[in-house]
Specification:
The complex is a heterodimer of chains A (about 450) and B (about 170). Chain A has 17 helices and 16 strands. Chain A has about 450 residues and is α+β, with helices and mostly antiparallel strands. Chain A folds into 2 domains: about 5-315, BirA Bifunctional Protein, domain 2, CATH 3.30.930.10; about 325-425, no CATH class. A 6-stranded mixed sheet of chain A has the order 10-11-6-2-1-13, sandwiched between helices. The radius of gyration of chain A is 24 Å and the shape is globular. Chain B has a single domain (about 1-160), classed as RNA polymerase II/Efflux pump adaptor protein, barrel-sandwich hybrid domain (OB fold (Dihydrolipoamide Acetyltransferase, E2P), Beta Barrel). Residues about 5-40 of chain B have low confidence and may be disordered. Classes of the chains: A alpha+beta (about 450), B alpha+beta (about 170). At the A-B interface, strand 10 of A face strand 4, strand 6 and strand 7 of B. Strand 10 of chain A pairs parallel with strand 7 of chain B. Chain B: This is Glycine cleavage system H protein. Chain B: InterPro entries: 2-oxoA_DH_lipoyl-BS, Biotin_lipoyl, GCV_H, GCV_H/Fam206, GCV_H_sub, Single_hybrid_motif.
Chain lengths: ~450, ~170
């Protein structure tokens, strides 16, 4: 990973984005399928005052899709009800109040997925890391997963209302008789475990839910696993190597066995649309009311762009992390026995670290020398502590170097390597490591969104 | 808090309801004490925030209502407001998470945030226990300085009796 502009630099560029998007508007007006307007100023937002609205995004960028959704949440008429359907390229989406260091295997994320079958090449498919604005736990998305989202007035909102709508679509329109909403507001199905016993079934989650409630609106969005080829990889991606060492405030994910429901994306979308119409529209809402939003259209909207800017910033993805404690020893707050640290670390090695918003608040590392000269090493602990406090975990590029620079005492390189693994920093062959923030930024900059953002940077 | 109005009915075991009721009565007692002690004036928004105003109407304490806390369910995380921030009535000043839902906390009036309740960082469930307690250990969210506009905003808010009637009506829907 070569040198690349920081998240802050990209954010600064984005801040400078003004309404000067007219060139894009005129360019992509040809791609409007449903919006029959010829005025470049009227985009997919022209329907925001209608009582019922249906949108489908053709973008597979998770930052863009979540920002379109947020725009609809913020700007639609408070009495309107909206259905929004979209699919994302491979990404991990964590909840608003979660820790990426606890929820995600950041090194596995950086490795990406094996090359796609449909586009055979030598490259791994990158996986984006996204923090959404709604609550709940971490999920994996890819092209085989459909996302559905309903925005409605608070007065009709319940947590099950629209999960039931999707479950109904699955049962009554798509031939999935066991689809139902469970006590966690997830949609589950029963699957025969094997052919030997006709009655032996196991329950699998196919859809998860999360909610965002504002002063005037309620948003419920959910996933639905249709035909993901990556299910066997999800468990590893959503398991942090630091899980056994971290106690976090905020929200921890609940693991559930997952399964594809085996339906095509178009069929699922049509069935959910039909169910939504049956629920709210009667015969009033026809296909004409459905708006297809392209990526270009979305990025011509300044609200969407500023939403993307926020979601794609390291300050949001990592800096929004609630306070957590990393400790190699059981503590009063987190008395779990700790996993074996595995490395050839000295017997007396101990690390205790508290981070708030990804920034180290307090840290105590002892026994970090590979030698037995413990007296001199531990005497240097205060120097190490003061050098590390206020350092941000997501901007740390290599703990081996960080520790060497922080103390004059000898440091066991295995200690740095252990901390690199714990906090998701991937070793690199050329000796230059990238921070996790740079890693996520690099994945964005390789996408069309990244190119759009780069084009939009001010002339220097 | 608007979205927790009315029909956010979460199926929950009877035990929880009993606990909620018990804690509600506790907090009523606590509130009665603090209200008389500070001679505070309490107002509510339709979006289920409350504000206690000091006798001189220069400062106040803000929180979310017991009704809202009960509708939301178990609160597992509180994003506190930013100290020193000046906000208008209705602005989102923080958020709470419960049962996969991130719900905005909105400022009931125009004001400046002077202090936040750090207890909630460690014990977010305090809001479920004593949502309307503005004393130490209570579920209040922030202390504020009331602006001139804030005094005007107060006129549009409900007193405790009107709010009780408002939530009773909402519950019937």
């Amino acid at each position: 990973m070569g040198p690349s502009p920081s998240f802050e630099a990209i954010s600064r560029r984005l801040i400078s984005l003004s309404s000067s998007t007219s060139s894009i508007r005129t360019h992509h007006i040809n791609t409007l399928r449903i919006s029959r307007t010829t005025s470049p100023k009227r985009h997919f937002t022209q329907n925001l005052l209608r009582p019922l609205q249906i949108y489908r995004s053709t973008s597979t960028d998770p930052y863009i899709n979540l920002s379109i959704e947020h725009h609809l949440l913020q700007r639609s008429h408070p009495d309107s009800t909206i259905l929004f359907l979209y699919t994302n390229r491979p990404c991990i989406v964590i909840g608003r109040n979660q820790s990426p260091w606890l929820e995600v295997n950041l090194r596995a994320l950086a490795d990406g997925l094996p090359p796609s079958d449909s586009k055979p090449n030598n490259y791994a498919q990158p996986i984006s890391l996204v923090r959404r604005r709604s609550g709940g736990g971490a999920v994996f998305h890819d092209h085989g997963n459909a996302n559905w989202s309903v925005i409605c007035p608070p007065a009709i909102f319940t947590r099950d209302l629209h999960a039931d709508m999707v479950a109904r679509a699955l049962r009554e329109r798509l031939g999935v008789p066991t689809a139902r909403v469970n006590g966690r507001h997830d949609i589950v199905i029963d699957v025969d475990v094997d052919g030997t016993d006709a009655h032996a079934t196991k329950t699998f989650k196919i859809s998860g839910s999360a909610y965002k409630l504002t002063r005037t609106r309620a948003l419920h969005h959910g996933t639905c696993l249709l035909s993901s080829p990556n299910l066997s990889r999800v468990g590893k991606l959503l398991r942090s190597p630091a899980e056994g060492f971290i106690k976090a405030r905020g929200v921890e994910s609940v693991r559930s066995p997952i399964r594809n429901v085996g339906i095509k994306g178009d069929e699922f979308a049509e069935a959910v649309l039909a169910e939504f119409r049956a629920m709210y529209g009667g015969g009033d809402i026809s296909h004409d009311g459905e708006v297809v939003v392209t990526e270009e259209q979305a990025l011509a909207n300044n609200d969407v762009v500023s939403g993307v800017r926020e979601l794609a910033s390291a300050d949001w993805v990592f800096g929004q992390t609630p306070l957590f404690t990393f400790s190699t020893e059981p503590t009063e707050e987190d008395p779990r026995p700790r996993p074996d640290v595995g490395y050839k670390l000295r017997e007396g090695f101990r690390a205790h670290l508290v981070a708030r918003h990804g920034e180290i608040q307090s840290v105590n590392i002892r026994g970090f020398s590979g030698t037995e000269a413990s007296a001199t090493v531990d005497a240097d602990t205060p120097a190490l502590t003061s050098a590390l406090v206020n350092q941000r975990l997501h901007h740390t590029t290599d703990w081996r170097r960080t520790l060497e620079e922080a103390t004059r005492a000898p440091v066991d390189p295995n200690v740095g390597e252990f901390l690199n693994e714990m906090f998701g920093i991937r070793p690199s062959v050329d000796g230059k490591n990238a921070s996790v923030a740079q890693m996520v930024e690099q994945i964005i900059s390789d996408t069309p969104l990244g190119k759009f953002l780069a084009q939009k940077q001010p002339q220097e | 808090m608007a979205s927790i109005t009315r029909c956010l009915r979460v199926a929950r075991p009877a035990v929880f309801t009993a606990v909620a009721r018990a804690s509600a009565s506790r907090s009523v007692a606590a509130r009665a004490f603090s209200v008389s002690a500070a001679n505070a004036l309490r107002k509510y928004t339709k979006e289920h925030e409350w504000i206690d105003l000091s006798a001189d109407k220069k400062t106040g304490v803000v929180g979310i209502s017991e009704y809202a806390a009960k509708q939301l369910g178990d609160i597992v995380y509180v994003e506190l407001p930013e100290e020193g921030k000046e906000v208008s009535a209705g602005d989102a000043i923080g958020a709470v998470e419960s049962v996969k839902s991130a719900a905005d906390i909105n400022s009931p009036i125009s004001c400046k945030i002077t202090q936040v309740n750090l207890v909630l960082e460690e014990k977010p469930g305090t809001i479920n226990q004593v949502a309307e307690d503005d004393s130490h250990g209570g579920g209040w969210i922030a202390k504020v300085q009331v602006t001139e506009q804030g005094l005007k905003d107060l006129e549009g808010l409900m007193d405790p009796d009107a709010y009780a009637a408002f939530t009773a009506e909402a519950g019937e829907h």
